[in-house]
Amino acid sequence: PHSFHRKGKTPRRPPLKKTSHTQKDPVGVYCRIRPLGATDEECCIEMISSTTIQLHAPDGIKANRNGEYKEVPLFEDVAKPLVDDLIHCKNGLLFTYGVTGSGKTFTMTGSPGEGGLLPRSLDMLFNSIGPLQAKRFVFRTDDKNGMEIQGQVDALLERQKRESNQQSTVPKTPSSKQKPDPEFADMISPEEACKCEGVDEDSCYSVFVSYIEIYNNYIYDLLEDTPIDPIRPKPPQSKILREDQNHNMYVSGCTEVEVKSTVEAFEVFWRGQKKRRIADTQLNRESSRSHSVFIVKLAQAPLDADGDHILQDKNQVTVSQLCLVDLAGSERTSRTKAEGSLPPGNINQSLMTLRTCIEVLRENQMCGTNRMVPYRDSKVTHLFKNYFDGEGKVRMVVCVNPKADDYEETMLVMRFAELTQEVEVARPVDRPICSLAAGRRHRNQAFRDELSRRQEERPGGSNNTEDGSVLNQLLDSLPALPACELVDPTDEQILPRLIEVLERRHRIRQMITEQYTRTANTLKSMLQEFDGHLMKDKIMFNQKNEMDRLEKKSKMLEYKIDILQKTTNIYEGDKRSLQQELESREQRLQRELSERKRMEARMQGMVSDTKHQWEKECERRVNAKQLEMQNKLWVKDEKLKQLKAIVSESNNNKPQRNSREKDQPRGDVFRTRGGGQAVQFTDIETLRQECPTVSSRKRRSSGDGPGQHDGNKMDWNDRENRVSCPHYCPSLIHFGWSKTAIRFCHDTCS
């Protein structure tokens, strides 16, 4: 028996909550455990309580857990709140997650006699809005994720056109008057049927369903009817994701079928289910190798003020949707061993992207970071990004298989579930309510019933009114017609009697006609009075609504005025503080400027004083240096005079040269950098003195004693002195200067 409906929520660790003005709800995570196939099969899951599940190693407990715990209806806790939100204009997302063979598809669809989440959700929806549905094609999709409204006549023409056009690309909607399939009819027993409370009876509803699959990161429409070409078959065309004017993601060009009953909707689902991609894997004989998304879209619009027709205003149409997602198996590729052209790598990649998005959302909420969530890395996450951004509630059903062989995969699934329930999603905002008076449909129906009752009243019945009694009396007073058989043409009794009866009947008929006219006028006046009362009631309701609206507007304006007043006070305080700060800064700036000017004047005085002192000091040093140089120059002049006298004396002792050689200048005299004078000779004579005898030369070269050859002693000393002289003095020896003159020249040059 399929008795394994169990709910178990993984214990949630208290996160580090941040202060936020937006109300948030955690992602609801529920666990469903599939029963073991054999009684002696090893089990790795133990259910501790309704919120705690314990996993054991494969060598742990060996026991079958079938029927050991009380069955908990999964639909009541998971899907029923989402259907209730769907009827109240809120979106919802429900997806199943788990390894292959854990019961994901069974949880979603169920079996004959025991319906899953999808048929139960559809049954609850149509039980709630069944008598409030609009006629077909009154609501029409605009191919931009929105809805349009058309009149009854246009809807009838379009319905006839769709029925006559057999080549239409839109699948023909199954008629709700057909006999339902017993397999579908037995999905939900009448005892398990439920409905939503608090449905707005002043609105009309219409349900549209679509069915897509995401395979190999491509989106395909499972309800699209493509012409079959047996010679050259064409692959199905993939769809693309787009963003509507409200920044919600939708599948562009997806087929949306209008349905009017649960059986109709489930037949459409089953027609698309046959096109899903399945394959034989090692874990499951018929494994779903794609992510399927069944979208239930509910369009609703309010009735007009008379409560008779739908309000022809597109802005008043609200569209909500519930997405039921059956994800592919989350097991590792090595364990699948799928046959055929299967892309398990892409399946795992899309589920890994889902896990990454959940981790980033959790990190941003708990750590206060602002990392970008990679929704666009996968079509699955990109399609449902609005739900995680606060466009509806999110519920996840984790399906696990307690077999010991799936222990590692089950551990990964439970870790992902534990991670997911720590993510919080912003609570959706309530839609605005129509401003028309409530109870319009009920009043319109009551008026129609009253009018029908009055029209059904006929004269001659048991009527207590005065007009009814008069009409009955007149009808009873009609005389019967006498026998009209004439035997004799001269008979003067039958004809006058017949004429008299006919005249009486004619008069009574005229009275009946007058009475009928008076009764009709009375009824007309009553109807007019009733219409007047209805008009007054309508005017009163409108005035009351207008007063409520004006009161709300007044309160809103007062609230805005208070906010503006508070804002103005805050701005005034900021303005005063800024002005004070500006004035203080200006005063500080003035003080700094005056201080800078005083500092500049002080520095200029110090610079001028220092400059005057240095000028005096420089002048004193220059005068002292000039005096020193003058003294040195005088000393050097005296030395030059002495040198000149010595040179003149030495020249007088030499033989006379010819006048040409005497007049020719031998050198130049110029001033040195130290303030003295120097002599530069331009004519150099090389003088050689030869010894009289070779022996004397040899003796000199062999280094005889200083007592020998005294006559040449002076010459060698002269050579030594000549070598030791500075740059300009060696030439003096050629003129026959004495040793004393050469030494004096050396002192002068140095």
From TrEMBL:
Principal place of residence: cytoplasm
Alphabetized Gene3D superfamilies for the sequence: Kinesin motor domain (3.40.850.10), Kinesin-like protein Kif23, Arf6-interacting domain (2.60.40.4330)
InterPro entries, per database record: Kif23_Arf-bd_sf, Kinesin-like_fam, Kinesin_motor_CS, Kinesin_motor_dom, Kinesin_motor_dom_sf, P-loop_NTPase
Region Disordered: start-end pairs: 1-23, 158-184, 445-469, 647-677, 690-716
Pfam families hit by this protein: Kinesin
Origin superkingdom: Eukaryota
Family: Belongs to the TRAFAC class myosin-kinesin ATPase superfamily. Kinesin family.
Protein name: Kinesin-like protein
Organism: Oncorhynchus tshawytscha
